[in-house]
Amino acid sequence: MAHYRDDLDAVLLALADPTRRRIVRRLGRGPASVGELARPFEMTLPSFMKHVRTLESSGVIRTSKTGRVRSCVLNRDRLALVDDWLAEQRELWSDRTDRLEAFVTDRHADRATEQKEPS
Amino acid sequence: MAHYRDDLDAVLLALADPTRRRIVRRLGRGPASVGELARPFEMTLPSFMKHVRTLESSGVIRTSKTGRVRSCVLNRDRLALVDDWLAEQRELWSDRTDRLEAFVTDRHADRATEQKEPS
């Protein structure tokens, strides 16, 4: 559980940046080299590499080197951690709505009974 | 668009912490005062308030003060920003899968034609 939490922290932190989200978006269309990924950004390569490393250490992307080229692929399973957490929250909200509905229905039934019974 | 991106940065950063995610989870069951929220955490009130303020400034929660009590409510719309971003990514992946499928199908059709035609 602690492990899952740490993982989720790292993934959310990695995604909390527009450059890194653009990289994720680009890799959603297929693998790419660091050179290709860096091209649309007005940024030095060392600055760009910091973003790549943050994404890699969070597990959101995987990289591998062949000769002088570093290739990057998206690891969708890591994004699923965020999906799972959000789904868990939605479940809590719907439980709450159900309880609220049951409460309102019960009150309504109670009142109907009260009105029928002589006081 | 820049505004949406900044908002999403703030929401993702706010969620990238286990204490803050526990607060969001608790508020998913209904509004609560800061005192109630702080109770399960082994933390000083000033430290806890920092988390509350991070959540508030990201818009994930709203707070209001009545007398000496500060109440907190969850703002689900802010979490929907994360949902929307994830949905956008999934759409890109499915486009890619569709294109890949079309490519494989085309290659298969090409080969079938090649095999029929005299070389």
UniProtKB/TrEMBL annotation, chains A, B:
Matching InterPro entries: HTH_ArsR_DNA-bd_dom (IPR001845), WH-like_DNA-bd_sf (IPR036388), WH_DNA-bd_sf (IPR036390)
The HTH arsR-type domain, residue ranges: 1-94
Domain of life: Bacteria
Protein name in the entry: Metalloregulator ArsR/SmtB family transcription factor
Organism this protein belongs to: Leucobacter iarius
